Amino acid sequence: MKPLALRPRVSRTLVACLLLIWLAGCSSTQFFYNRLDFFVPWYLGDYVSLDRSQDALLEDELQPFLAWHRQDELPRYIELLERAERSLDQPVTRDQLMALTLDAEQALDRLQHRALDWMLVLGDALREEQLQEFMLALREQQAEYEEKYLERDDAHYRDDACERLQDNIRRYLGRLQTEQKTRLAVACANLRRSDSVWLAERAAWLDRLDMLLQREPDWQASLRQAVA
Questions:
Q1: Helix pair 178-189, 154-173: axis angle to 10 deg
Q2: Is the dihedral of CA 90, 96, 97, 103 positive or negative?
Q3: Global pTM value
């Protein structure tokens, strides 16, 4: 398998940044992570207003979820990052990247599965007007996204996408060499637009979610199947 063109020094910088993000004792990420019991309800408040009993229910349901993530998942993240760092002792192959990507996707699947436990309990406790409030917030967000993204022409889309890509690369890799800048410019020029597809799929999902939240018998199992 042909190695990817990843320079060892640049690649190690990327892994070091990832390790700092997840593991540094004084990082902002750790600050937010250690306060998820506050930030999750705060974030949820943008979509639905809970009463006191529902707030208490959410707190009770969140605690075992957060404990599971800290005790079981964080060590697996550390192992994954350490394995990624060790792989940089030699040129990184596509197979290695695919294996790391698969592990990351499986971690996301585990997170989604466990998060649904408390989400479905809370969803069952919401009143009809709260479910309507929740769906209205999501549809208003959809309208904002469509206005923001779909009104761009193709050139504007490529400029926005390339600017975000360049910012992320500079943040994690530092200054690029001339050859790398050239490759990035070519990649940006060949970007295929995907925002309309993403928003169409999101709109279709909102319609399906709205139907599932009518809470017919076995609606929780149906929702789990829908997001699987």
A1: 150
A2: negative
A3: 0.78
Query: How many C-beta atoms lie closer than 10 Å to residue 223's C-beta?
Result: 19
> 81 near 15, Cβ under 8 Å?
yes
- Dihedral Cα 26, 32, 38, 43, nearest 10 deg: 160
Look at residues 109, 126, 143 and tell me which one is the last residue of a structural domain: 126
Residues 77-104 pLDDT 10s? 888 888 888 887 788 788 888 888 888 8
Euclidean distance between CA atoms 79 and 29, whole angstroms: 18
| CA–CA separation, 27 and 221 (whole Å) | 38
Confidence (pLDDT) at 59: 95
Can you tell me the distance from the alpha carbon of 72 to that of 92, in angstroms, rounded to the nearest whole number?
28
Query: Are 46 and 90 in a shared domain?
Result: yes
How far apart, in Å, are the Cα atoms of 79 and each of 22, 23, 26, 101, 121? 12, 12, 20, 14, 32
Amino acid at 73: E
In whole angstroms, give the CA distance from residue 109 to residue 115. 10
Same domain, 177 and 135: yes
Specify whether 180 is located in the same domain as 102.
no
CA dihedral 94, 97, 102, 107 (to 10 degrees): 180
Q: Rounded to an integer, what is the distance from CA 214 to the centroid of its chain?
A: 27
Distance CA 128, CA 35 (A): 30
